[in-house]
Design brief:
single chain; 270 residues; alpha/beta; seven-stranded mixed beta sheet; 10 helices; 7 strands; 44% helix; 19% strand
């Protein structure tokens, strides 16, 4: 038990350090998040989620908001947004980007998910993009968030490794294509950084991305169990292929043709 608590504290501290280090560079470091295709896909998913919610007051909680990837889109869609993140540095960038909304339809809070003190049933929508794999205990965090959701509200979780990410493919050929594709992404991005002159700091993601590892991968059955236990009326995981480079990767289409999708998102309605 003590070892578990120590590990969770180390994961928490690692995330504070990592996101402090990359806050200034974040939107240039991560094409898997900020490429044009991915941004277009995210907006499409948010509009899909919005249709699930309907004509409510549109009070949203953006968990792990970072520099405002989802927060900005939600504000443009008319939501009142509470953006929380463990990184004060990320939150400060978010505040500057969306300063016109501060005190009106935007509140920014620096806090771990586990320390949130909102009343139960506060939010119509809770979003989490590329966050669960960073959390010390993502099932406990989801249980907390489920309690903060109104009846009829929606949780949207995106950009987490699918159940297929770490599994072997059907044949040696597909396994080779998958391996070449996933390994080519950092190589292509590294070349892009060199050409554009971006000096990328050395960042250790070993503990901060704890659940994005083959030996302890995020378990979608645990996520589903939270929705079942919380008596959600609807929940569905959808798997998709990720565009993870700033420039086109010629292996993307062969990869998509023969391999299973490596990323997932969830939409769940209470």
């Amino acid at each position: 038990m003590q070892n578990d608590l120590m590990l969770k504290q180390k994961i928490l501290e690692a995330n504070i350090i990592v996101h402090r280090q990359e806050a200034e560079y974040y939107e240039r470091l991560h094409p898997e998040v900020y490429s044009r295709k991915e941004q277009k896909r995210i907006l499409s998913r948010l509009r899909e989620v919005d249709r699930f919610i309907g004509k409510s007051k549109k009070n949203a909680l953006d968990v792990g908001a970072g520099t405002g990837n989802l927060t900005g889109k939600l504000l443009q869609m008319g939501y009142h947004v509470t953006a929380i993140d463990i990184s004060a540095e990320m939150g400060n960038i978010l505040k500057k980007k969306y300063s016109t909304f501060l005190g009106k339809r935007l509140t920014v809070i620096t806090s771990p998910v586990e320390d949130l003190t909102f009343e139960r049933g506060t939010f119509d929508l809770i979003t989490s993009y590329s966050v669960l794999h960073h959390l010390p205990d993502y099932t406990v965090a989801l249980q907390i968030l489920a309690g903060l959701l109104k009846k009829g509200g929606v949780i949207y979780i995106d950009h987490e490794a699918s159940p297929f990410y770490w599994t072997s493919e059907r044949s040696m050929l597909t396994e080779m294509v998958k391996g070449f594709y996933l390994h080519s992404n950092p190589i292509i991005n590294s070349l892009y950084f060199q050409v554009t002159g971006l000096r990328v700091p050395m960042i250790d993601y070993t503990l901060s991305d704890y659940w994005f590892k083959k030996d302890h991968a995020l378990n979608h059955k645990d996520i589903e169990a939270v929705f079942k236990q919380g008596h959600f009326t609807y929940y569905k995981r959808t798997d998709y292929y990720q565009n993870a480079t700033w420039t086109p990767n010629p292996l993307f289409y062969p990869y998509r043709l023969v391999c299973k999708p490596e990323m997932s998102y969830w939409i769940a309605k209470k």
